[in-house]
Amino acid sequence: MSKNPETPVFTISTAATLLGISIPTLRMYEKEGLIVPFKKESNQRLYSQTDLDRIRCIRETINKDKISIAGIKRILSMIPCWDILRCTEQDRINCLAFKEHTNPCWDYNHTTGICGTKNCRECDVYLNFAECSKIKSHFISITLNRNS
Amino acid sequence: MSKNPETPVFTISTAATLLGISIPTLRMYEKEGLIVPFKKESNQRLYSQTDLDRIRCIRETINKDKISIAGIKRILSMIPCWDILRCTEQDRINCLAFKEHTNPCWDYNHTTGICGTKNCRECDVYLNFAECSKIKSHFISITLNRNS
DNA sequence: GATACTTGATAATTATAAATATCAAGTTCT
DNA sequence: AGAACTTGATATTTATAATTATCAAGTATC
């Protein structure tokens, strides 16, 4: 049971071993806001299979595609969360994620709107854009379906 | 006369001096596909005032925002040129700029469609997105106006 | 026709991002 | 209680992106 790939089961050391990287690197990705691992009450991190896949994708973008972390953050900041979550205009006005373009939306402490009640780790915006290549195809479908 | 900021008037050495950078750097940006300077019949480059502004913006993104050139290219590749130029479906099928997400559209040698007849340097897609921060706001207006 | 530019290409340099090592202190778990 | 983890933080190392220097050959300009 619990074959659910979203379930957080790996400690940071096993995650690091599985990924072939060091523990500080994992902490660094988190500090930069690229990943949102599960946290136990004791503040201990746990990673799911989906988390590992996401981190592999991030590493490929950094190491193979040569896109810096700041670049990845700006790309992720373009995900139209306001559209996906159907924010109200009032929500948008108060939302740094909407106004800025430096960090993914899950980097901000949302207190108002839909995001105020959500856990980013379980949010569609976070879950559906693990691969940043998906962002362009999302915009493609928006533009192509607009006038249908 | 010719106060038009689009007119190519600066040689590469004066452009480099005005920008405070070296000539090889300017050639590098061009080789990477970030800029498309005017070229005389003799292959000599000329830069306009708009070109200089664009290059300043690129430099700020690289040096201040810490976004790598590969990152800028991926961001620029997300500009919905197919939507701006109203490409046909047939155009899109043949278009690398539509399918890939590594280079801005003006990096590809278009032979078919609207782009086949255009000079990228004078294209709306190139001209309107000198600042890559404009891309997100473009998507904002698309998503917000969609259901109006 | 001579001086000062340009071209592309390669090599060397500089800057800095990404990753790791190490630390003291606090948890987890048998 | 003790062995093996965890936490955050700082310092260091490594990798490599960004920039510049230099070259021979061609072009512009006076």
Explain this structure to me?
- The structure is a homodimer of 148-residue chains.
- Chain A has 148 residues and is mainly alpha-helical.
- The first copy, chain A, has 2 domains: 66 residues, Multidrug-efflux Transporter Regulator, Chain: A, Domain 2 (Orthogonal Bundle); 81 residues, no CATH class.
- A two-stranded antiparallel sheet of chain A has the order 1-2.
- In chain A, β1 and β2 form a beta hairpin.
- The longest helix of chain A is centred in the middle third of the chain and has 15 residues.
- Chain A is globular.
- Chains A and B meet through α4 and α10 of A and α4 and α9 of B.
- The first copy, chain A, binds a DNA duplex (30 and 30 nucleotides) through α2.
Key descriptive features of the protein:
two-stranded antiparallel sheet; DNA-binding; mainly alpha; 148 residues; Multidrug-efflux Transporter Regulator, Chain: A, Domain 2; 51% helix; homodimer
Protein topology:
2 copies of one chain form a homodimer.
Chain A: H1 12-19, H2 23-31, E1 38-39, E2 45-46, H3 49-63, H4 69-76, H5 81-84, H6 89-93, H7 96-99, H8 113-117, H9 124-128, H10 134-145
Chain A binds a DNA duplex (30 and 30 nucleotides) through residues 11-13, 21-25, 27-28, 42-45, 62-63, 66, 68-70.
